[in-house]
Specification:
mainly alpha; 2 strands; 134 residues
């Protein structure tokens, strides 16, 4: 059946759909705020793509739980005893966290510039601003 392969890749499909929605808003919408929202949707789709593609199991964990056994849950303890605890690469998560912080900064500066543009031109419509430019 065709539905099972599609559902196994649903994270990538959602990523592409979000990217297309953001690209549409960035290209077609004349309002600066809507363009910023489109840019943020594109950034979010890239984050989702990284997180979805970073779910690669690196193999069995080489560590053992050294704490008190009552803290570790029973399922985790059973998997650890059977050698089934997998190690996941933490670097993509750290990169995405850094990218989110940078994205928030870029969005804040862009919104501040949009306010200044509105105060100067009296509009956020890029078509009108381009006509007033000369």
């Amino acid at each position: 059946m065709w539905i099972e392969p599609v559902l196994s890749r649903i994270d990538y499909i959602v990523t592409v759909i979000l990217f297309c929605i953001g690209l549409y808003a960035l290209i077609v919408k004349p309002n600066l705020i809507k363009k910023l929202i489109g840019m943020n949707v594109i950034e979010t789709s890239v984050y989702l793509f990284f997180i979805a593609s970073a779910d690669v199991r690196l193999g069995p964990a080489t560590w053992q739980w050294a704490g008190p056994p009552e803290i570790a849950d029973a399922a985790h303890a059973a998997r650890a005893a059977a050698g089934q605890v997998a190690l996941v690469n933490p670097i993509p998560s750290a990169l995405i966290l850094t990218a989110i912080v940078v994205s928030i900064s870029v969005t804040a500066i862009s919104l501040a510039l949009s306010i200044k543009i509105y105060e100067h031109y009296g509009t956020l419509d890029t078509r009108k601003i381009m006509r007033l430019k000369g």
